[in-house]
Amino acid sequence: MGFFSFVQEIAMDLGTANTIIISDDKIAVDEPSVVALDRNNNMIAVGAKAKLMYEKEHPDIRTVRPLRDGVIADFEPCELMMRGLIKMVHTRNRLFSQSLRMVIGVPSGSTEVELRAVRDSAEHAGGRDVYLIFEPMAAAIGIGLDVEAPEGNMIVDIGGGSTEIAVISLGGIVSNNSIRVAGDDLTADIKEYMSRQHNVKVGERMAERIKIHVGSALTDLGDEAPEDYIVNGPNRITALPMEVPVCYQEIAHCLDKTIAKIENAVLSALESTPPELYADIVKNGIWLTGGGALLRGLGKRLTDKIKIQFHIAEDPLHSVAVGAGIALKNVDRFSFLKR
Q1: Which residues contact 144 (CB under 8 A, 6 or more apart)?
Q2: 3-state percent helix, strand, coil for the chain, nearest multiple of 5
Q3: What is the mean pLDDT of the chain?
Q4: If you placed Cys at 142, which of 89, 157, 167, 322 could pair as Cys (CB 3.0 to 4.6 Å)?
């Protein structure tokens, strides 16, 4: 069958932390956005294999996360990474890989230069027909909202590098607030806190594990409280091994300032929302998507603070990719896709 499909179609959520590719209506690739390169900048590994090498390299190997704050920070490694991940999708279709139609999710706060970088990377990685879609719009489509209806919906998409807040109505983004505060900042907070509070050195991957096991937006989770997490690492001063139990309450305190920045960004987006759409949002609630939506207690904390119901998408990690996949099927109909 693959032999006759002259145009290969893929939708991509090119994220700071993970890249997800949808092909033939299913998730074909869901890998960390990491690439490992040798001395001559040749690709050794991509995705999960490259992440295993992260923070463990020697001088002949370097691992790169080519995206920072939701945008491309390292052009060549990004292109190599995209190429490697696209290759994972369809090895059998290599015959026609030169004709690749792509829809890629990008942060809604991207500058023209940043959009150009994504488009160029996609074209160098084999994209013939490249469309860009803003991530909150893709997320809204992915969770099943009717984005073309004359009705206001608000999406808060918390990724690895950026938080995208957008009010959508009539197939367009009415007001948006894109801040470079997201999952990576929460990880950095934990890293800094462990060093300052417990004198233990932890790397990015360990901080990420702490966030997954005991990360919380609230100091009181009631019955949903996770068990303490045991952290092993070297003492910052003596370098002797340490074992430190960490509870979710202390992590909630350490993440408080960063979560407050996200709250303020949501409030500021609501301030600039026209009254009629604001009334729709109060009625419909606000949707949380992206990996950050999985932080324990975040929906409740935002609901209590902003007094509007926050809903967590059914599959927050894949909402953008799923929406980009639906947009791929409707490129002729959706006028908001950028070429």
Answers
A1: none
A2: 40, 30, 30
A3: 91
A4: 322
Count of alpha carbons within 13 angstroms of residue 127, beta-carbon side: 25
- Report the pLDDT value the prediction gives residue 94, as an integer from 0 to 100: 54
Is there a contact between 246 and 231 (Cβ–Cβ < 8 Å)?
Answer: yes
| 215 and 247 Cβ atoms separated by less than 8 Å | no
Q: Map tokens 């920070």 to a residue.
A: 73
What tens digit of pLDDT does each residue of 142-159 get? 999 999 999 999 999 999
Secondary structure element (H or E) that encloses residue 283, with its range: helix 275-284
How do residues 187-201 score in pLDDT, each as one tens digit? 999 999 999 999 999
Nearest alpha-carbon partner for 267 in 302, 316, 300, 297: 302
Q: What is the per-residue burial (b if ≥16 Cβ within 10 Å, else e) of 65-103?
A: bbbebbbbbeeebbbbbbbbbbeebbeebeeebebbbbb
CA distance 214 to 205: 14
**Cα separation of 308 and 330, whole Å?**
32
| Whole-angstrom distance, CA of residue 120 vs CA of residue 156 | 28
- Whole-number pLDDT of residue 24: 87
Judged by DSSP in three states, 163 sits in strand
